[in-house]
Amino acid sequence: MNIELKAVRKLRIHWPIPVETMTQLAGGNLQALNADAGITSLLEELQTTPELGGFGNYHHVFESSAGFEGFTVAEGANPTLGTVGQRTISPTFVFTTYFDDALDQSAVQALVQRIVDIHPWEVPVIEVSGPLSVSSSAVQVETRLAS
After folding, report:
1. SS3 content of the chain, % helix, strand, coil (to 5)
2. What is the set of domains in the chain, with CATH numbers?
3. pLDDT of res. 116
């Protein structure tokens, strides 16, 4: 097996989930994500983007974690959750994947815009990193011909 480094950029999306979904995930019920309409819409949108999560023979590779995000709503905001001036804590699904560093910037902008368009937050947290390297392995298969 050859190990190569591949130049990629990281895409990380913070997505709110209901307390019930967080509780089910904490209990080991991964099917809870399939029952969450918001996460389902995110995963379906990202599934339509073939440039995401490509690692050789594996496609749409992603990592996820469940956690919390906190914020204080300021005057003038139109929050989905929370009240002006109060600290709010929201259970959160964090989705991370990678795309080739050579992907055109306009394609990256369009992808982020599609996520913003379906995201429930007024100001979603979507991170796009600069170039970094990840390991990518390629299995070499030898073809042997019988004599």
Report:
1. 25, 35, 40
2. 2-131 (3.30.70.120)
3. 96
